[in-house]
Design a protein that fits this description.
51 residues, little secondary structure
Length: 51
């Protein structure tokens, strides 16, 4: 396996987009609708678990 395509938050054109990606018909320079931090400390709020 050389890549994983995560199809979260799909819309009406998700099927067409998922076919265009492996065939190179699109440029994958988009933006996510959320932020993924490199470290847990990069988030302003931390989840506290346990007692």
């Amino acid at each position: 396996m050389t890549a994983v395509v995560w199809a979260a938050l799909g819309g009406t054109k998700t099927g067409n987009a998922l076919v265009d990606i492996p065939y190179g018909a699109v440029n994958l320079s988009g933006c996510l609708p959320y932020t993924i931090a490199k470290l847990p400390s990069d988030y302003s709020a931390q989840l506290v678990t346990g007692g």
